[in-house]
Write a structure and sequence with these properties.
single chain; 167 residues; 2 domains; 65% helix; elongated
Length: 167
């Protein structure tokens, strides 16, 4: 993934902005060394690449969507839109039809199985949504990190998340 960000730039010039040696860049590119979180953040800030951001998030947490790059994926904006709508409808239907009034620790096995289906559908919808935002941002040349920054500011303003205090 780092090699894709670097493009035609040499490893030396790529590393200069980040105070990295050519050897370190090479290790990141061939997977011998994991990109540290501070460097990953600097690369996300510098290149504003949604694919890299999604990939890094998954690599560091082992959760969240992975970038779709298999033989059956079509990342054209229209295809992504249609898939996103399909996944959202399926998730919404499953979510609406599951009753959350009972304590989840008291679910019968068949109810727990139904809940797992709901969660599966929600995760599929989340993957579709993440790709929709990424694809549109890339093609429209809208800042991916800017979209998230605006969202976080909105959440802070609404009191849903606290403001980080400097150490």
């Amino acid at each position: 993934m780092v090699k894709e960000l670097r493009g035609e730039e040499t490893q030396v010039s790529f590393g200069l902005d980040l105070s990295l040696t050519r050897e370190t860049v090479s290790k990141y590119e061939n997977g011998r060394t994991k990109v540290p979180s501070d460097i990953a953040r600097a690369l996300v800030d510098k290149y504003d690449d949604p694919k890299f951001a999604i990939t890094v998030r998954n690599e560091y947490t082992g959760t969240g969507p992975r970038w779709l790059d298999g033989p059956n994926v079509d990342l054209h904006r229209s295809s992504v839109k249609e898939k996103t709508l399909e996944e959202l409808k399926e998730a919404l239907e499953k979510l609406e039809n599951f009753c959350f009034s009972k304590p989840l620790t008291k679910l019968q096995p068949f109810e727990k199985q139904s809940l797992e289906i709901v969660l599966d559908e929600l995760v599929e919808a989340q993957t579709a949504l993440d790709h929709m935002v990424a694809v549109v941002c890339q093609e429209a040349e809208i800042s991916y990190t800017g979209v998230w920054d605006k969202h976080y500011a909105s959440l802070i303003s609404a009191g849903y998340i606290g403001i980080k205090k400097a150490d």
